[in-house]
Write a structure and sequence with these properties.
Number of helices: 12
Bound molecules: zinc ion
Number of strands: 26
Radius of gyration: 23 Å
Distance between the termini: 7 Å
Strand content: 25-35%
CATH class of the largest domain: Alpha Beta
Number of domains: 2
CATH superfamily of the largest domain: Ribonuclease Z/Hydroxyacylglutathione hydrolase-like
CATH topology of the largest domain: Metallo-beta-lactamase, Chain A
Shape: globular
Strand order of the largest sheet: 8-7-6-3-2-1-26
Structural class: alpha/beta
Protein backbone atom coordinates (compact mmCIF):
# COMPACT_ATOMS: atom_id res chain seq x y z
CA UNK A 1 0.00 0.00 0.00
CA UNK A 2 1.32 3.39 -0.96
CA UNK A 3 2.37 5.72 1.80
CA UNK A 4 0.63 3.73 4.47
CA UNK A 5 1.12 3.32 8.19
CA UNK A 6 -0.52 1.39 10.96
CA UNK A 7 -1.18 2.88 14.37
CA UNK A 8 -1.66 0.33 17.14
CA UNK A 9 -3.65 1.55 20.13
CA UNK A 10 -4.36 -0.23 23.36
CA UNK A 11 -7.49 1.01 25.07
CA UNK A 12 -7.46 -1.25 28.10
CA UNK A 13 -6.41 0.49 31.28
CA UNK A 14 -5.64 -1.21 34.56
CA UNK A 15 -7.70 -0.33 37.61
CA UNK A 16 -4.82 -1.39 39.87
CA UNK A 17 -1.18 -2.48 39.35
CA UNK A 18 -2.12 -6.10 40.11
CA UNK A 19 -4.95 -6.38 37.66
CA UNK A 20 -4.79 -7.24 33.98
CA UNK A 21 -6.43 -4.63 31.85
CA UNK A 22 -9.60 -5.41 29.90
CA UNK A 23 -8.35 -6.33 26.43
CA UNK A 24 -9.11 -3.89 23.63
CA UNK A 25 -6.72 -3.29 20.75
CA UNK A 26 -7.33 -0.88 17.90
CA UNK A 27 -5.48 -1.01 14.60
CA UNK A 28 -5.80 2.10 12.47
CA UNK A 29 -4.66 1.68 8.87
CA UNK A 30 -3.56 5.13 7.73
CA UNK A 31 -3.19 6.03 4.06
CA UNK A 32 -1.94 9.43 2.96
CA UNK A 33 -2.51 10.83 6.40
CA UNK A 34 -6.09 9.66 6.89
CA UNK A 35 -7.43 6.62 8.73
CA UNK A 36 -8.72 4.31 6.02
CA UNK A 37 -9.67 1.38 8.22
CA UNK A 38 -10.24 1.08 11.92
CA UNK A 39 -10.20 -2.49 13.26
CA UNK A 40 -10.89 -3.36 16.90
CA UNK A 41 -9.49 -6.59 18.33
CA UNK A 42 -11.35 -7.71 21.47
CA UNK A 43 -13.33 -5.51 23.82
CA UNK A 44 -13.49 -6.75 27.36
CA UNK A 45 -14.41 -5.65 30.82
CA UNK A 46 -13.12 -6.57 34.24
CA UNK A 47 -15.02 -6.64 37.50
CA UNK A 48 -13.86 -4.91 40.61
CA UNK A 49 -15.36 -6.43 43.77
CA UNK A 50 -16.41 -3.74 46.23
CA UNK A 51 -17.05 -4.79 49.82
CA UNK A 52 -20.73 -4.70 50.66
CA UNK A 53 -21.91 -3.60 47.25
CA UNK A 54 -22.29 -4.65 43.64
CA UNK A 55 -19.17 -5.28 41.60
CA UNK A 56 -17.99 -2.30 39.62
CA UNK A 57 -17.60 -2.96 35.91
CA UNK A 58 -14.36 -1.60 34.53
CA UNK A 59 -14.24 -0.75 30.82
CA UNK A 60 -11.54 0.19 28.31
CA UNK A 61 -11.01 3.88 27.59
CA UNK A 62 -13.06 4.60 24.46
CA UNK A 63 -12.11 8.27 24.08
CA UNK A 64 -10.14 7.52 20.88
CA UNK A 65 -13.47 6.94 19.11
CA UNK A 66 -14.50 10.55 19.69
CA UNK A 67 -12.40 11.45 16.64
CA UNK A 68 -15.44 10.34 14.62
CA UNK A 69 -13.73 7.64 12.57
CA UNK A 70 -16.08 4.66 12.61
CA UNK A 71 -15.00 1.10 13.36
CA UNK A 72 -14.90 -1.03 10.20
CA UNK A 73 -14.50 -4.47 11.78
CA UNK A 74 -14.37 -6.08 15.21
CA UNK A 75 -12.35 -9.27 15.74
CA UNK A 76 -12.94 -11.44 18.81
CA UNK A 77 -10.19 -13.83 19.95
CA UNK A 78 -12.41 -15.57 22.52
CA UNK A 79 -15.46 -14.88 24.62
CA UNK A 80 -14.06 -14.58 28.14
CA UNK A 81 -15.50 -11.41 29.68
CA UNK A 82 -12.11 -9.66 29.78
CA UNK A 83 -11.93 -9.96 25.97
CA UNK A 84 -15.56 -9.82 24.93
CA UNK A 85 -17.75 -8.54 27.76
CA UNK A 86 -17.81 -4.90 26.56
CA UNK A 87 -18.29 -5.54 22.85
CA UNK A 88 -21.76 -3.98 22.85
CA UNK A 89 -20.19 -0.69 23.98
CA UNK A 90 -18.65 -0.49 20.48
CA UNK A 91 -22.03 -0.40 18.74
CA UNK A 92 -22.38 3.44 18.69
CA UNK A 93 -18.93 3.69 17.08
CA UNK A 94 -19.37 0.99 14.45
CA UNK A 95 -20.01 1.69 10.77
CA UNK A 96 -23.26 0.31 9.37
CA UNK A 97 -21.44 -2.49 7.58
CA UNK A 98 -19.02 -3.42 10.36
CA UNK A 99 -19.02 -7.13 11.18
CA UNK A 100 -18.04 -8.89 14.41
CA UNK A 101 -15.70 -11.70 13.40
CA UNK A 102 -15.58 -14.74 15.65
CA UNK A 103 -15.10 -18.48 15.36
CA UNK A 104 -17.97 -20.93 15.43
CA UNK A 105 -16.72 -22.08 18.84
CA UNK A 106 -17.01 -18.56 20.18
CA UNK A 107 -20.34 -17.80 18.51
CA UNK A 108 -21.96 -20.87 20.07
CA UNK A 109 -21.63 -19.38 23.55
CA UNK A 110 -21.31 -15.66 22.79
CA UNK A 111 -24.94 -14.74 23.39
CA UNK A 112 -25.02 -16.63 26.71
CA UNK A 113 -21.93 -14.72 27.81
CA UNK A 114 -23.39 -11.33 26.83
CA UNK A 115 -26.62 -12.07 28.69
CA UNK A 116 -24.64 -11.72 31.92
CA UNK A 117 -24.41 -7.99 31.20
CA UNK A 118 -28.10 -7.74 32.12
CA UNK A 119 -27.54 -9.01 35.67
CA UNK A 120 -28.59 -6.46 38.24
CA UNK A 121 -30.21 -4.06 35.74
CA UNK A 122 -33.79 -2.81 35.88
CA UNK A 123 -36.38 -3.80 33.23
CA UNK A 124 -35.36 -1.03 30.81
CA UNK A 125 -31.69 -1.90 31.22
CA UNK A 126 -32.38 -5.56 30.53
CA UNK A 127 -34.35 -4.65 27.40
CA UNK A 128 -31.45 -2.54 26.17
CA UNK A 129 -28.94 -5.36 26.77
CA UNK A 130 -31.19 -7.79 24.91
CA UNK A 131 -31.36 -5.40 21.94
CA UNK A 132 -27.60 -4.79 21.93
CA UNK A 133 -26.87 -8.52 22.10
CA UNK A 134 -29.17 -9.03 19.12
CA UNK A 135 -27.17 -6.42 17.22
CA UNK A 136 -23.90 -8.27 17.90
CA UNK A 137 -25.47 -11.54 16.79
CA UNK A 138 -26.80 -9.94 13.59
CA UNK A 139 -23.36 -8.54 12.74
CA UNK A 140 -21.51 -11.79 13.49
CA UNK A 141 -19.26 -13.17 10.77
CA UNK A 142 -18.68 -16.77 11.80
CA UNK A 143 -15.37 -18.44 11.01
CA UNK A 144 -16.06 -22.14 10.51
CA UNK A 145 -12.50 -23.41 10.13
CA UNK A 146 -8.95 -22.12 10.61
CA UNK A 147 -7.41 -20.34 7.61
CA UNK A 148 -7.26 -17.12 5.66
CA UNK A 149 -10.16 -14.69 5.40
CA UNK A 150 -10.40 -11.21 3.92
CA UNK A 151 -11.44 -9.10 6.90
CA UNK A 152 -11.78 -5.91 4.84
CA UNK A 153 -10.96 -5.19 1.20
CA UNK A 154 -7.20 -5.64 0.84
CA UNK A 155 -6.71 -6.84 4.45
CA UNK A 156 -6.31 -10.62 4.57
CA UNK A 157 -6.01 -12.29 7.95
CA UNK A 158 -5.13 -15.70 9.28
CA UNK A 159 -7.56 -17.02 11.88
CA UNK A 160 -5.74 -19.71 13.85
CA UNK A 161 -6.55 -21.87 16.90
CA UNK A 162 -5.10 -20.56 20.18
CA UNK A 163 -5.96 -23.38 22.64
CA UNK A 164 -7.06 -21.68 25.90
CA UNK A 165 -10.84 -22.31 25.68
CA UNK A 166 -13.17 -23.62 23.01
CA UNK A 167 -13.34 -21.27 20.05
CA UNK A 168 -10.23 -19.28 21.02
CA UNK A 169 -8.21 -18.01 18.07
CA UNK A 170 -5.48 -15.59 17.15
CA UNK A 171 -5.64 -13.12 14.26
CA UNK A 172 -2.70 -12.22 12.05
CA UNK A 173 -3.48 -9.34 9.69
CA UNK A 174 -1.52 -8.50 6.56
CA UNK A 175 -1.21 -4.76 6.05
CA UNK A 176 1.19 -3.74 3.29
CA UNK A 177 4.48 -5.41 4.07
CA UNK A 178 3.61 -6.11 7.72
CA UNK A 179 2.06 -9.16 9.31
CA UNK A 180 0.52 -8.05 12.60
CA UNK A 181 -0.42 -10.65 15.17
CA UNK A 182 -3.05 -10.47 17.92
CA UNK A 183 -2.55 -13.55 20.06
CA UNK A 184 -5.51 -13.36 22.45
CA UNK A 185 -4.99 -15.74 25.38
CA UNK A 186 -2.68 -18.61 24.43
CA UNK A 187 -2.21 -22.18 25.53
CA UNK A 188 -0.06 -24.77 23.75
CA UNK A 189 -0.73 -27.71 26.06
CA UNK A 190 -3.72 -29.96 25.52
CA UNK A 191 -6.71 -29.56 27.83
CA UNK A 192 -9.86 -31.64 28.13
CA UNK A 193 -12.05 -30.69 25.17
CA UNK A 194 -9.38 -28.75 23.31
CA UNK A 195 -5.90 -29.39 21.98
CA UNK A 196 -3.13 -26.87 22.49
CA UNK A 197 -2.53 -24.17 19.88
CA UNK A 198 -0.65 -25.43 16.81
CA UNK A 199 2.27 -23.26 15.57
CA UNK A 200 1.45 -20.55 13.06
CA UNK A 201 2.14 -21.56 9.43
CA UNK A 202 5.69 -20.29 8.54
CA UNK A 203 4.37 -18.03 5.78
CA UNK A 204 2.36 -16.18 8.45
CA UNK A 205 5.27 -15.55 10.79
CA UNK A 206 4.42 -12.19 12.32
CA UNK A 207 6.54 -9.03 12.08
CA UNK A 208 4.67 -7.44 14.95
CA UNK A 209 2.98 -8.78 18.08
CA UNK A 210 0.24 -6.22 18.67
CA UNK A 211 -1.58 -8.23 21.33
CA UNK A 212 0.10 -10.69 23.68
CA UNK A 213 -0.78 -12.84 26.70
CA UNK A 214 1.56 -12.00 29.59
CA UNK A 215 -0.63 -13.53 32.34
CA UNK A 216 2.21 -15.46 34.04
CA UNK A 217 4.99 -13.00 33.22
CA UNK A 218 5.96 -12.52 36.87
CA UNK A 219 5.30 -16.09 38.04
CA UNK A 220 8.44 -18.28 37.79
CA UNK A 221 6.50 -21.03 39.66
CA UNK A 222 4.30 -21.38 36.59
CA UNK A 223 7.26 -23.18 34.95
CA UNK A 224 7.47 -25.74 37.74
CA UNK A 225 3.87 -26.82 37.46
CA UNK A 226 3.14 -29.83 35.26
CA UNK A 227 -0.38 -29.68 33.89
CA UNK A 228 -1.06 -33.40 34.13
CA UNK A 229 0.36 -33.57 37.68
CA UNK A 230 -1.95 -30.78 38.78
CA UNK A 231 -4.93 -32.86 37.67
CA UNK A 232 -3.62 -35.98 39.39
CA UNK A 233 -3.00 -34.13 42.63
CA UNK A 234 -6.43 -32.47 42.62
CA UNK A 235 -8.20 -35.73 41.79
CA UNK A 236 -6.36 -37.54 44.58
CA UNK A 237 -7.25 -34.85 47.15
CA UNK A 238 -10.90 -35.06 46.09
CA UNK A 239 -10.92 -38.85 46.48
CA UNK A 240 -9.40 -38.59 49.95
CA UNK A 241 -12.10 -36.14 51.08
CA UNK A 242 -14.83 -38.45 49.78
CA UNK A 243 -13.19 -41.44 51.46
CA UNK A 244 -13.28 -39.50 54.72
CA UNK A 245 -17.03 -39.48 54.17
CA UNK A 246 -17.08 -35.78 53.43
CA UNK A 247 -17.58 -33.58 50.36
CA UNK A 248 -15.69 -31.51 47.81
CA UNK A 249 -16.46 -28.17 46.15
CA UNK A 250 -14.56 -27.08 43.07
CA UNK A 251 -15.05 -23.42 42.14
CA UNK A 252 -14.59 -23.31 38.37
CA UNK A 253 -15.17 -20.76 35.61
CA UNK A 254 -18.35 -21.43 33.69
CA UNK A 255 -16.68 -21.31 30.29
CA UNK A 256 -14.69 -24.46 29.56
CA UNK A 257 -13.14 -24.91 33.02
CA UNK A 258 -16.17 -26.50 34.69
CA UNK A 259 -16.71 -28.81 31.70
CA UNK A 260 -13.04 -29.81 31.88
CA UNK A 261 -13.32 -30.62 35.59
CA UNK A 262 -16.58 -32.55 35.13
CA UNK A 263 -15.04 -34.54 32.26
CA UNK A 264 -11.80 -35.34 34.08
CA UNK A 265 -13.48 -36.21 37.36
CA UNK A 266 -15.89 -38.52 35.57
CA UNK A 267 -12.94 -40.20 33.79
CA UNK A 268 -11.10 -40.55 37.10
CA UNK A 269 -14.08 -42.33 38.65
CA UNK A 270 -14.79 -39.66 41.28
CA UNK A 271 -18.44 -40.69 40.90
CA UNK A 272 -17.59 -44.07 42.45
CA UNK A 273 -16.61 -42.35 45.70
CA UNK A 274 -19.62 -40.04 46.03
CA UNK A 275 -22.10 -38.08 43.95
CA UNK A 276 -20.60 -35.88 41.24
CA UNK A 277 -22.60 -32.73 40.45
CA UNK A 278 -22.61 -29.57 38.34
CA UNK A 279 -24.49 -26.45 39.36
CA UNK A 280 -25.52 -23.12 37.82
CA UNK A 281 -23.77 -21.69 34.73
CA UNK A 282 -21.34 -24.60 34.94
CA UNK A 283 -24.21 -26.82 33.80
CA UNK A 284 -25.15 -24.64 30.84
CA UNK A 285 -21.65 -24.41 29.34
CA UNK A 286 -20.87 -28.07 30.00
CA UNK A 287 -24.08 -29.01 28.18
CA UNK A 288 -23.02 -26.89 25.20
CA UNK A 289 -19.55 -28.42 25.14
CA UNK A 290 -21.05 -31.91 25.25
CA UNK A 291 -22.99 -31.27 22.03
CA UNK A 292 -19.84 -30.52 20.03
CA UNK A 293 -21.86 -27.81 18.28
CA UNK A 294 -19.05 -25.23 18.53
CA UNK A 295 -16.31 -27.40 17.06
CA UNK A 296 -14.40 -25.50 14.37
CA UNK A 297 -11.06 -27.34 14.05
CA UNK A 298 -9.81 -30.91 14.57
CA UNK A 299 -8.34 -29.98 17.98
CA UNK A 300 -11.85 -29.60 19.43
CA UNK A 301 -12.68 -32.79 21.27
CA UNK A 302 -15.78 -34.18 22.89
CA UNK A 303 -16.45 -33.49 26.53
CA UNK A 304 -18.19 -36.33 28.32
CA UNK A 305 -20.00 -35.41 31.51
CA UNK A 306 -22.95 -37.75 30.97
CA UNK A 307 -22.57 -39.34 34.40
CA UNK A 308 -22.38 -36.00 36.18
CA UNK A 309 -25.66 -35.02 37.84
CA UNK A 310 -27.07 -31.55 37.18
CA UNK A 311 -28.31 -29.76 40.28
CA UNK A 312 -31.06 -27.95 38.32
CA UNK A 313 -32.55 -31.33 37.45
CA UNK A 314 -32.66 -32.14 41.14
CA UNK A 315 -35.05 -29.25 41.78
CA UNK A 316 -38.45 -30.82 42.28
CA UNK A 317 -41.62 -28.88 41.40
CA UNK A 318 -42.24 -26.13 43.92
CA UNK A 319 -38.86 -26.45 45.61
CA UNK A 320 -37.29 -23.12 46.41
CA UNK A 321 -33.83 -22.04 45.43
CA UNK A 322 -31.40 -23.33 48.01
CA UNK A 323 -33.60 -26.06 49.47
CA UNK A 324 -32.56 -28.81 47.15
CA UNK A 325 -28.96 -27.76 47.56
CA UNK A 326 -29.58 -28.02 51.25
CA UNK A 327 -30.88 -31.56 50.84
CA UNK A 328 -27.92 -32.63 48.76
CA UNK A 329 -25.58 -31.04 51.26
CA UNK A 330 -27.34 -32.68 54.18
CA UNK A 331 -27.01 -36.12 52.57
CA UNK A 332 -23.30 -35.36 52.09
CA UNK A 333 -20.56 -37.26 50.27
CA UNK A 334 -20.65 -35.27 47.04
CA UNK A 335 -18.40 -33.30 44.71
CA UNK A 336 -19.87 -30.08 43.37
CA UNK A 337 -18.36 -28.21 40.42
CA UNK A 338 -19.70 -24.68 40.06
CA UNK A 339 -19.11 -20.93 39.71
CA UNK A 340 -17.78 -18.42 40.77
CA UNK A 341 -14.44 -19.59 39.39
CA UNK A 342 -12.51 -17.72 42.06
CA UNK A 343 -14.90 -18.65 44.85
CA UNK A 344 -17.08 -15.53 44.73
CA UNK A 345 -18.55 -13.05 45.06
CA UNK A 346 -21.51 -14.56 43.18
CA UNK A 347 -22.35 -17.98 41.85
CA UNK A 348 -23.84 -21.05 43.55
CA UNK A 349 -20.49 -21.74 45.27
CA UNK A 350 -21.52 -19.05 47.78
CA UNK A 351 -24.28 -21.45 48.88
CA UNK A 352 -22.18 -24.62 48.86
CA UNK A 353 -19.25 -23.19 50.77
CA UNK A 354 -21.30 -22.68 53.92
CA UNK A 355 -21.75 -26.46 54.20
CA UNK A 356 -18.06 -27.17 53.63
CA UNK A 357 -16.05 -24.45 55.36
CA UNK A 358 -16.79 -25.62 58.89
CA UNK A 359 -16.33 -29.34 58.13
CA UNK A 360 -12.75 -30.45 58.95
CA UNK A 361 -13.02 -33.40 56.51
CA UNK A 362 -14.33 -31.42 53.53
CA UNK A 363 -12.22 -30.02 50.68
CA UNK A 364 -12.46 -26.76 48.76
CA UNK A 365 -10.39 -27.25 45.63
CA UNK A 366 -9.72 -24.14 43.55
CA UNK A 367 -9.24 -24.93 39.87
CA UNK A 368 -6.81 -22.19 38.90
CA UNK A 369 -5.48 -18.76 39.65
CA UNK A 370 -7.35 -16.84 42.36
CA UNK A 371 -7.17 -13.04 42.11
CA UNK A 372 -6.72 -10.71 45.08
CA UNK A 373 -9.97 -9.25 46.51
CA UNK A 374 -12.03 -12.34 45.67
CA UNK A 375 -13.77 -14.56 48.21
CA UNK A 376 -11.44 -17.36 47.15
CA UNK A 377 -8.42 -15.27 48.10
CA UNK A 378 -9.96 -14.79 51.58
CA UNK A 379 -10.42 -18.55 51.99
CA UNK A 380 -6.88 -19.31 50.83
CA UNK A 381 -5.39 -16.67 53.11
CA UNK A 382 -7.39 -17.89 56.12
CA UNK A 383 -6.33 -21.52 55.51
CA UNK A 384 -2.68 -20.47 55.19
CA UNK A 385 -2.80 -18.52 58.42
CA UNK A 386 -4.58 -21.38 60.20
CA UNK A 387 -1.99 -23.91 59.01
CA UNK A 388 0.89 -21.63 59.99
CA UNK A 389 -0.41 -20.69 63.45
CA UNK A 390 -2.70 -23.57 64.41
CA UNK A 391 -5.36 -21.01 65.32
CA UNK A 392 -8.92 -21.19 64.12
CA UNK A 393 -9.48 -18.43 61.59
CA UNK A 394 -12.82 -17.02 60.54
CA UNK A 395 -13.60 -15.50 57.20
CA UNK A 396 -16.30 -12.92 56.42
CA UNK A 397 -17.88 -12.54 52.99
CA UNK A 398 -20.19 -9.93 51.52
CA UNK A 399 -23.09 -11.84 49.98
CA UNK A 400 -25.93 -10.55 47.85
CA UNK A 401 -29.21 -12.22 48.80
CA UNK A 402 -31.93 -12.22 46.20
CA UNK A 403 -35.55 -11.41 46.99
CA UNK A 404 -37.40 -14.67 47.56
CA UNK A 405 -40.70 -15.94 48.84
CA UNK A 406 -40.95 -18.33 51.72
CA UNK A 407 -44.36 -19.83 52.58
CA UNK A 408 -46.03 -17.11 50.55
CA UNK A 409 -44.16 -14.30 52.25
CA UNK A 410 -41.71 -12.04 50.39
CA UNK A 411 -38.28 -11.93 51.98
CA UNK A 412 -36.35 -8.91 50.78
CA UNK A 413 -32.79 -9.48 49.55
CA UNK A 414 -29.76 -7.22 49.88
CA UNK A 415 -26.12 -7.28 50.91
CA UNK A 416 -25.35 -9.20 54.08
CA UNK A 417 -22.19 -10.35 55.83
CA UNK A 418 -21.63 -14.07 56.35
CA UNK A 419 -18.91 -15.35 58.68
CA UNK A 420 -17.61 -18.93 58.85
CA UNK A 421 -14.66 -20.64 60.49
CA UNK A 422 -12.30 -22.16 57.93
CA UNK A 423 -11.93 -25.73 59.19
CA UNK A 424 -11.92 -27.62 55.89
CA UNK A 425 -9.00 -28.62 53.66
CA UNK A 426 -8.22 -25.95 51.07
CA UNK A 427 -6.14 -26.64 47.97
CA UNK A 428 -5.47 -25.38 44.47
CA UNK A 429 -4.91 -27.34 41.29
CA UNK A 430 -3.59 -25.05 38.58
CA UNK A 431 -5.27 -26.25 35.41
CA UNK A 432 -5.66 -22.91 33.64
CA UNK A 433 -5.25 -22.45 29.91
CA UNK A 434 -2.37 -19.96 29.72
CA UNK A 435 1.29 -20.37 28.87
CA UNK A 436 3.80 -20.44 31.71
CA UNK A 437 6.31 -17.62 32.03
CA UNK A 438 9.09 -19.61 30.37
CA UNK A 439 6.92 -20.77 27.50
CA UNK A 440 5.74 -17.19 26.95
CA UNK A 441 9.38 -16.09 26.67
CA UNK A 442 10.14 -19.01 24.30
CA UNK A 443 7.31 -17.84 22.09
CA UNK A 444 8.69 -14.29 21.86
CA UNK A 445 12.19 -15.64 21.22
CA UNK A 446 11.17 -18.18 18.58
CA UNK A 447 9.18 -15.76 16.47
CA UNK A 448 11.32 -12.70 17.27
CA UNK A 449 9.04 -10.02 15.86
CA UNK A 450 10.50 -6.56 15.11
CA UNK A 451 8.07 -5.04 17.55
CA UNK A 452 5.91 -6.31 20.38
CA UNK A 453 3.24 -4.71 22.49
CA UNK A 454 3.25 -6.32 25.93
CA UNK A 455 -0.31 -6.70 27.18
CA UNK A 456 -2.70 -8.70 29.34
CA UNK A 457 -0.79 -8.99 32.57
CA UNK A 458 -0.11 -7.10 35.78
CA UNK A 459 2.44 -4.25 35.87
CA UNK A 460 4.89 -6.73 37.40
CA UNK A 461 4.28 -9.34 34.68
CA UNK A 462 4.93 -6.89 31.89
CA UNK A 463 8.01 -5.45 33.58
CA UNK A 464 9.44 -8.92 34.23
CA UNK A 465 9.01 -10.03 30.62
CA UNK A 466 10.31 -6.71 29.28
CA UNK A 467 13.47 -7.24 31.37
CA UNK A 468 14.15 -10.53 29.59
CA UNK A 469 13.19 -9.38 26.11
CA UNK A 470 15.22 -6.18 25.91
CA UNK A 471 17.79 -6.75 23.18
CA UNK A 472 15.79 -9.68 21.77
CA UNK A 473 12.84 -7.73 20.38
CA UNK A 474 14.09 -4.46 18.84
CA UNK A 475 10.97 -2.45 19.68
CA UNK A 476 9.21 -3.28 22.94
CA UNK A 477 6.10 -1.38 23.81
CA UNK A 478 4.61 -1.33 27.31
CA UNK A 479 1.40 -0.22 29.00
CA UNK A 480 2.37 3.42 29.32
CA UNK A 481 3.99 3.98 25.93
CA UNK A 482 0.93 5.22 24.05
CA UNK A 483 0.09 4.23 20.48
CA UNK A 484 2.72 2.55 18.31
CA UNK A 485 3.07 3.81 14.74
CA UNK A 486 4.74 1.64 12.10
CA UNK A 487 5.38 2.02 8.34
CA UNK A 488 3.41 -0.56 6.43
ZN1 LIG B 1 -9.20 -15.83 28.39
Amino acid sequence: MANSKVVLHRLGVRNSPDSIEPSCGVMDVVENGAVKYRIVIDCGLTQIPLPGGPRKLHYPDFSLFNDGKKIDAVLITHVHADHFGAVTKLLPFMSREARVVMTKGSFTVAMHVLKDNAIGLDKAGQQRVLFENGEISRRALIIRKPGEVEILHGIPALVWPAGHIQGACSFTLKVGKLKIHYAGDRCTHDQPGIKGAPPLPPEWRPDVFAGTDCTYGADPDSDKRVYRDEWDRGTELAKQALLRGSSVAVPAFALHRSAAVAHMFQQAGIGDFGRLLLDGKAELYTDIMETGEGHWWPGDEAIDATEVERVSERYMGGAEDGESRYEIARNGNFTIVTTAGMGGPGGPFTQWRKFLLSDPDALILFSGYVAPDTDGAKILAAARERDATGNEIEVTFDVLKRDRTHKGRLIKGGWVKETYPVKCHVAQMRIGGHESRGKTLDWFQELRPQAAVLAHGSEASLASLAGELRGVIPLLHGSHDGPLTLDA
